[in-house]
């Protein structure tokens, strides 16, 4: 096992104060951005060890393809950061760390251009003068994806860089689309260099807008809100100087029937396969469970590792599918046959639920959430999704769900009340409420509620007002 963080050698220029941790009800939350979205087996062991020694012994997968250590003692925060940096999981420069907020399509494979595009973007961002990107919004991020980019349509990103197969008659194998968030059109680039130039152009513009808005006492916003504000003020969109050969291209909306995320199992079965996709129930992985997986991968004697996905899943790469009718010994050694810890069946009802950490882990949550979501999972029909949120922020799921249960009260009562929202988010208003005790005592009540909401017509129009007070409203 890795040594204690306090024993890690000091790194030149190290300044723990540059990283502001997130405080929560169970201690500090330390976010880890794996380099290019991947953890080696050794790095996974480091995370499991740190979570056990200094956290809640549980790791959390976020919808930004990050890994979070929860329950970290504030007194150990600097030591944990030091250990992460020593393992190659944290930049000692806070600016460089922010510029690694790149979500990469975890299903990328050799030859599709996605990884090389992400590497080029990351290098270009790091080489850009600091003053040009100063003031970027804290949550500003990029996404790099390939031909399966519709699976990442719900992932938040200010600049999307798509590397797509070129037409058969083209002289090069790929072409690129660079889309600013908030527009239904993209910059079509014939080369990777021109695509990176477009991405930098948009990033620098957003940083400039953020600095200007701060100077006027306004919230800096992110790309979509900045574009909307610019258009409202100037009555047209910005006129960016496009690199040679780059043209604007309208985007075709994805069909509504398109899958929003992949199912667990082997991905791209053709040799070489991309890897094996497994889900963690509600995105939580006990440290001992991750350690067992990492140790099994080390024993394969390959460069096996795990890619972090925005779907609260892990993609295990560097392993080969078993022959038909056989099984891989390492899968059992890794504990992937334990259905409590892992979801490997595409029809598992736990794939149809999401929930924030809830109370008492989050100070803003009005009720516990995760246990209720797991109890109700068997009642969620295929094709539907249940989101249980501890407050109106809806951190675990920003897009609408078939049914959202939002905690309404924090009083010491036998049962918490939950607002029922159909085809909406946790911030939407509803007049219907259910008691958690009623849902637990009669789970059929929940499934009947879904049936009624999805079949009764006409329905009253859903309010678009927000129950958040102005001070708590989430910035765009």
What report would you give on this structure?
The chain has twelve helices and 21 strands. By secondary structure, the protein is an alpha+beta fold. Helix 1 (41-54) packs antiparallel against helix 8 and helix 4 crosses helix 6. It is globular, with a radius of gyration of 23 Å.
Write a compact overview of the structure shown.
With 476 residues, the chain is α+β, with helices and mostly antiparallel strands. Helices cover 26% and strands 20% of the residues. α1 packs antiparallel against α8 (287-298).
Q: Which regions have little confidence, pLDDT < 50, spanning 5+ residues? A: 1-18, 457-476
Structural class: alpha+beta
Mean pLDDT: 86
Strand order of the largest sheet: 6-7-8-9-10-11
Helical percentage: 25-40%
SS strand fraction:
15-25%
Specify the number of helices. 12
Largest sheet: 6 strands, mixed
* Large-scale geometry: globular
The gyration radius over C-alpha positions equals 23 Å
Distance between the termini: 42 Å
Total number of strands: 21
